[in-house]
Amino acid sequence: MKYLAGRLGALLAVVAVIGLLPWLTRTDPALTILHARYADRPPTPDVLDAIRTETGLDGGPLHVLGGWAAGLLHGDLGESWVSGQPVGPDVTSALGVSLTLMGASLLVAGLLALALAAGTLRRGARRRLTTTRAGVGAAALAALPEFLVAAVLVTVLAVQLGWFPALGWGGPAEIVLPAVAMGIPAGALLGRLLDDALPAAFAEPWARAATAHGMRPPRIAAHALRRTLPALLPQIGLAVVGLTGGAVAVETLYAIPGLGGTALSAALAQDLPVLQACVLLLLLLGVAAGLAARLGSRALLGPARADGALPPLVAPHLPARRAVVAGAAVLAALLLAVIAAGLLRDPLHADTAARLAAPSPAHPLGTDSLGRDILARLGRGAATTVLTAVAVSAVTLVLGLLAGFLRAGALTETANALPAVLSGLVVAGIAGPGPWGAAAAVTVVAWAPLAAHTSALHAQERAAPHVDVARALGAGPWHRLRRHVLPGVVPPVVRHAVLRVPAIALALASLGFLGLGTPAPDPEWGRMLSENMPYAERAPWAVLAPAAALAALGVLAVLTTAAVRGGRRR
User: Fold this and answer.
1) How many Cβ atoms sit within 10 Å of the Cβ of residue 479?
2) What span, in angstroms and rounded, lies between the C-alpha atoms of 282 and 197?
3) Helix (H, G, I), strand (E, B) or coil at 303
4) Which of 24, 111, 401, 433 is spaced 20 to 30 Å from 379 by Cα?
5) SS3 letters across 80-96
6) What is the rounded average pLDDT for all residues in the chain?
7) Count of alpha carbons within 13 Å of 272, Cβ hemisphere only?
8) Angstrom distance (rounded) from CA 102 to CA 368
9) Cα–Cα dist 33/199, whole Å
């Protein structure tokens, strides 16, 4: 009961903030309604007063919020300020579409995660894990933006080959491409986390005993999966909500009438009843997914969790391959060379005669749609993209660790249910657009996956016998935390945070593209992607350069952590 009460309280608080958004941003909702419904009528005081009376805005924000809550108790989600139609049918229809797409995307993500971890499962079940796996493929796939994957799939599989429809929603054929586009980044992230946790499971005594007893490798691999899944179930629950409400770009590209696009359109139009309904459904979905993950984790761990008999997952020391260290050094040198070469050029000079020019000696990486040198913009935008993303990642890591140790599950699930674009609109509306507002908006929601990961690992570590032994020997809480709990929690969460650096850079870029972040014409890698996506088929270099830079950033981060982890001895 306490579990549900905390989450419902957080849910109501967020919905109340959304309902007060026009007054928090000091905008007149009556003017928004007038422009949406009667674009040709002048905004005279009499007209605005009539709209306020009709919609109940004349009673003030608390009156509007109270009326919406009273209608909610009777199953009435209100009427749209823009269309004047009931909100319920449209929003529930959008939710059904998004849930269908989410289910297909989650299937793709699960299959990809298992494929990425298949090598570790196979070698671990046969006692052949000898070196640290860097996870380069997973890092590169996790760094790919969904809208770029979606655009490539449309161009190749729909337009050129004609295998699937390019637009629309209805039959099974329309689900395939958007599900693959959304499932690849999510599956890569889950696969990397799974691959990172499996060596510790295979190093436990039961795995050695099972091998000595002659148990078949597939059964050993299945037991290792069960051992590592409790820490990953919260991430799967968060992915359920993220794939439902955060698929704005994919839904827009494929013309899918889903909940994420509906929420974004309502936020841009300040159609509060629709926006409140979308956020409410996303938050309820987050509560349901979090509860399912919690129950699943308890079922997998069994009574060992409550009895303090769960052995800790301790990763064995696996030396890094020389190729990992060399690859990190080469990739870092290559990125620095490209950035240095770009800094010697003017990123704002536009040569209209060379718009979308192919790579040449004058423009080694080609030009964009305005004739600006891509190499120059790539180099000049490195500081903005990388430093901001790393700074936000560091802050989210600290917040995630604190929230996870404090077991702030209600806040975690609430924050995850809000798409970064939607939180950006709220923060920018209150504090004004700009790079600091965009960084704050991403930080508000980006700590949630790290907090969920921390909380799951913390629960397992607290259930380990050595913690009870330390308590019995007189060790205080701080000693137990520092010597017995933190070593098993912090390293995996840090590696998780590193893997999310490119995703944070893309979230910042999406806000900048909406005019809520770094203003144009300042160069920024994500903005370069967004600006040149309409010309991807005619000038692919304009998109491939920033996409490759983001993927290289993710791969470099993973290679560096693998080299450090493999070179550290216990």
Assistant:
1) 13
2) 29
3) coil
4) 433
5) CCCCCCEHHHHHHHHHH
6) 77
7) 28
8) 34
9) 58
What 3 state SS string does 134-171 have? CCHHHHHHHHCCHHHHHHHHHHHHHHHCCCCCCCCCCC
Residue 246 has pLDDT above 70, yes or no: no
Separation of alpha carbons 44 and 46, rounded Å: 5
Reading phi first (left if > 0) and then psi (alpha if -120 to 50, else beta), residue 132 is in beta
Distance, CA of 226 to CA of 233 (rounded, Å):
11
Least confident of 12-26, 136-150, 192-206, 240-254: 12-26
pLDDT of res. 344: 85
Structure tokens given for 569: 């001895």
Residues 6+ apart with CB under 8 A from 339: 378, 379, 382
Name residue 400's amino acid: G
Q: Please state, in angstroms and rounded to a whole number, the distance separating the CA atoms of residues 439 and 429.
A: 14
Query: Of 386, 247, 230, nearest to 300 (Cα)?
Result: 230
CA 422, 513, 144: angle at the middle one, nearest 5? 85
Assigned token pair, 4: 């549900």
Task: Report residue 446 as tokens.
Answer: 């980006």
Closest by alpha carbon to 414, among 257, 179, 245, 183? 245
CA 458 to chain centre: 22
SS (H, E, C) 460-501: HHHCCHHHHHHHHCCCCHHHHHHHHHHHHHHHHHHHHHHHCH
pLDDT in tens, 339-389: 888 888 888 888 877 888 888 888 888 888 888 888 888 888 887 777 888
Beta-bridge partners for 372: 350
Token pair of 529 as six digits = 């992607």
* Residue 171 CA: distances (Å) to CA of 177, 251, 311: 12, 15, 48
Q: For residue range 485-495, list pLDDT tens digits in order.
A: 777 788 888 88
Q: Are 435 and 507 in contact (CB under 8 A)?
A: no
Contact indicator for 286, 452 with CB cutoff of 8 Å: no
User: Per residue in 301-314, pLDDT tens?
Assistant: 666 555 555 666 66
The model's pTM = 0.76
**CA-CA distances (angstroms) from residue 464 to 246, 296, 313, 451, 556?**
36, 19, 9, 20, 34
pLDDT at position 21, please?
A: 65
Question: How far lies 428's CA from each of 12, 268, 444, 455, 518, in Å?
Answer: 22, 12, 12, 30, 12
- Tell me the two tokens of residue 51: 């709209």
Q: Which residue has the higher pLDDT, 306 or 569?
A: 306
433-444 in b/e form (b: 16+ CB < 10 A) is bebebbbbbbbb
Structure tokens at 179: 């599900």
Q: For 157-200, write each residue's pLDDT tens digit.
A: 887 778 888 787 877 888 888 899 889 888 888 888 888 888 88
